[in-house]
Each structure stands twice: as C-alpha cells, then as structure tokens.
Amino acid sequence: MIKFIPISRMYDIVKEQYYSCLDEVYREDNQFEGTYCKKSEQKLQDITGRKHALLVTSGTAGILAMLLAQGVKPGDEVICINYSCPATVMPIKVLGANPVFVDIDRHGQMDLSNVKSKITDRTTAILTTGLYGDTFDYDAIKDIGIPILNDSAQSVFNKYKGQENTKLGRMSILSFSTNKNIPVFGTYGAVFTDDDQLAKDLYVIRRNGYLNRDVGNAITHIGFNAQPHADKSAQLYCSLQHAEQFQKRREEIANYYHKELAKQEISIRPSPAYSKSNNHKFTILVDNKFSFRDRMKNEGVETQLHYTYNFAKAPVFSHAVGSFPYTDLYVRHAISIPCSPWHTDAEIETVVDAIKKSATKGDKNVQI
Ligand SMILES: Cc1ncc(COP(=O)(O)O)c(C=O)c1O
Q: What atom of ligand 1 comes closest to residue 61's alpha carbon?
C-alpha cells in the first residue's frame, strides 16, 4: 500500500541530527522553552517575516491563544470558514463564542466577498483560513475594521500576491503536524504577530496566564498550558533544516501530477490567480470521492478525504444559518492523493496509474 504520508521516511532523514539535539536537550535541565525552542522561533521569524514567533503545543492551541489574545469571550461572534478540519472552529466554541460561517469558493478557499453582511455589533474577529496550500483573498477584507486572525496552519510558504501567507492578519498560526509542510512526529504549533504587546500577551497566555510565581499573585490573563517542550522543539528544528528541500520535492510531484492528470481529463482543484500554492495537498475532483477512495485502495493507494465536514450541519453548531453550496460540492468531490516529499518517482507513477484504473467516466472533467 502506498501510504498517504510515509512519515517514517522523514525519521531516516533527521534521526542522526535529532538524537544529537536530544542529548543536548536532556542535559540542559530545562524542559520547557530552551535552546531549540529559541532557535526554531528565530528560524520561523526568518521564514515568515514576522517580528514575533511563539511556539505552542499545536496549531489548535495557537488558534485558541490568538482568540484569547484578541479578547474573544462568551457570546461574541467570530466569522469563520464553514469547511476545514474541525480544529479551525472548535476553539471559538470552547470559549463560548459563536462561529458565523461563510462558504468556500470554487478554489476551496474562504469566500470573503460577502463578509460585510455577516458583521454585527458582536463580531470580534474574522478567523481566516487558507486550505490545500492556497489562500483566501486578503485584500477583500484588510480594511474592513475587524481584527483578522489568520489560521494559516497549512500555509507556510504559500504566497498571497507574492507575500508570505503567515504574514497576513493581526496574528497568525502554523501547525507542524505530521501532514504539514514542516512536520514533526505528532503535532506542534506556533503563533505569530508583529505587535510587541500582543507578543507579550501570547507569551503569558501560553503559560496559564501568569509570567512568574516569584512576583506574588501575578495572574494577568486567561491562559492555558501550551508551553513549548524542549524535545519537541528539537524535532521541529531538525525538520526546519530540510524545509526547502521538502518544498522542492512537493513542487516536482505536483508538476508531474498536473501534466499526467490533464491527459486523463481528471479535474484538479484550481488555485486562485492571486495565490502561489505551497502544494500542501494535491486534491482532485471526482464524481463520488467515497467510492473513488475505495477503488484507489484496491489499487494499493491510500488517499484522504479533505474534507467531509459541513460545519453548519453539525449538531454542535446548531445555531448556524444559511446554505453553503461550495461546501456541499467539496464534501462530495474533493479527494487528496499522495504528495509528500518522501514519495519516490515510482510510487507517484503508480498513483497516476491507479487513478487511470479507478476513474469511471463520471470521474472525468468534474466541474465546480
Ligand atoms: C486549517 C487547519 N487549522 C488548524 C489545524 C490544527 O493544527 P493541529 O493539528 O496542529 O492542532 C490544522 C491541522 O490539522 C489545519 O489544517
């Protein structure tokens, strides 16, 4: 079976350096933050162009930290995407605030063209999300007067009109989960801002709302434990050393798929003109992704169903109103095929061949 993400192959690439880092880490007598946390935060500042980068325990923790730093509280409304992984919207609910959903567009990106009509006097933030390696149209909302918090979990190295995606918004986040472009084993995350005060707030929020027990009763924020671990930071540091090379390989595979799948008349999720994809996912559109997934499995290829959720229809979001036609289309048609930096040429050729064998007439030229 060709796995969707053969992460054990990354282990082979980083293990020597990783064990040498761990030896330093465990002798440092400091298991939170520490040398590799600082080094990784510095490298992430360089990559994103952000003034501040703060590691946290996951991308989800990063979103929760951004919402807390923005002061989102019970009863507030946060405008957000209706289609993503649940991690995008759950932190809004956790805070007792209400997500106000907007649909995606034909590119699978958050449709911001009508956001103004969703704003009420309870709107405290717009939580933007880029999916599949592409991004939303930032210029459509940048002057709207509502703080933009950017869930750029999937978007490192994606460019919006030439600008690094993670640089967009008052704050932004990255996830380093195993399926991301800079992966660790498991997950990890970071929050970004250019604002000095917000960076101080985020630092305190990620350590349960207090800076230091030695200065007395100094609990200043609502926070939670998202403190960076020294050993996980070493994992991230090792992955960061290979990030450029991983990107190159993703691009090579994506270019090959574009060429070969066009010959087969398979529709590929389109990128918006303003976005340069980071090839985080390679997603095609077929008639019925659930049965296509099963046929691909029979051909020995694992695929993933990004995504199967229509948030507005989930019981936990029962307050949601409106219709979401592009969400419905993506839920039916969009399926991701293997595109990790560790797949071999032979495996990628096998994937193309498996698609040829699995695609029915109805799976060709699917239009959205
Ligand atoms: C768009 C998006 N937001 C948030 C997250 C959450 O990141 P994590 O899995 O690190 O908590 C992910 C990753 O799965 C994601 O893809």
A: 11
